[in-house]
Amino acid sequence: MDEIIKKLPLNVRKKIVQLNEILQTTISPEAILRLKYCLTLLKCLDDEIGNLTEGIFQYANEWFKQEMQILKSVPGIGNIAAVTLLAEIGTFSDFPSGDKLASWLGLVPNVYQSADKMRTGSITKRGSDHARWILVQIAHAASRKRNTVFQKFYDRKKPMIGAGKTIVALAIKMVIIVWHLLTHSEFFNDENGDGVPHSKTVKIRIPVIVTLDEILKILNRAAVVLKDPDPDIKGC
Q1: Angle at CA of residue 81, ends 80 and 83, nearest 5°
Q2: How confident is the model over 153-161, as a mean pLDDT?
Q3: At CA 84, angle to CA 82 and CA 88, rounded to 5?
Q4: What does the radius of gyration of the chain's CA atoms come to, in whole angstroms?
Q5: Residue 202: what pLDDT?
Q6: Confidence check: pLDDT of 175 > 70
Q7: In whole angstroms, what is the distance from residue 45 CA to residue 55 CA?
Q8: Per-residue pLDDT tens digits for 182-216
């Protein structure tokens, strides 16, 4: 029995006194038979879940190969998370932006307005519960990936807003990144600092010499144009 206890998880082994009391109790043959049946049933269910999961992975990797590869390039996302997101969200390009997708998933906070004051509350929790749950799990996993933009984001925000709100904020950030990657058929790249490729912006200085009189004339013409009614707006 000591050898069995050594193989138990640490949190279970801490209750050694209670375990010894239970082990000293006599178990009836009927109870052992029921326990054996329950264990057999659990193993059968686990085997069925394993077969079903393997079939789902094969289907997803065959028909959504590129989407699966893009999703799994993001730290914290594995097969189960990638399949769940594809099943619950579907076509990511149906959403005009990553912010809209995060709102649809219920990850954004409620906004309350009273007079001229606005305050935010808990997240809306709209949309798919499964997608929202898996995104929170993804955020937890990503926050533990060393030397990634997600871990840096988590470490920076946690002291300011707490662990729970930081995980939700990280989940929103990851949703926006995932939306960008899938809609642009790009793989995750952590070298840029936020995982999303950036185009280089070239700034060109154009010298403009405008006199004060010319500026006043432009402003005067603009004021006249603004006073004229918009012909496209009728009945307003």
Answers
A1: 65
A2: 94
A3: 125
A4: 29
A5: 47
A6: yes
A7: 15
A8: 999 999 987 645 555 544 454 545 455 667 777 67
Please report, as a single letter, which amino acid is at residue 3: E
Backbone angles phi, psi at 124, to 5 degrees: -70, -30
- Domain total in the chain: 1
Nearest-5° Cα angle at 172, 113 to 68: 150
Residue 93 located in a structural domain: yes
Is residue 75, in this structure, part of any structural domain at all? yes
pLDDT in tens, 106-149: 998 887 777 677 677 788 888 899 999 999 999 999 999 998 99
Q: Is 119 helix (H, G, I), strand (E, B) or coil?
A: strand
**Cα–Cα dist 6/51, whole Å:** 32
Report pLDDT for 29.
81
pTM: 0.69
Tokens at 57, concatenated: 């992975």
Q: Is 188 within a domain?
A: yes
Assess if residue 174 is contained within a domain. Answer: yes
Report the amino acid identity of residue 65. K
Q: Report the amino acid identity of residue 20.
A: N
| 108 contacts 100 by C-beta, under 8 angstroms | no
Domain residues for 156? 64-192
Positive/negative CA dihedral, 33, 37, 39, 40:
positive
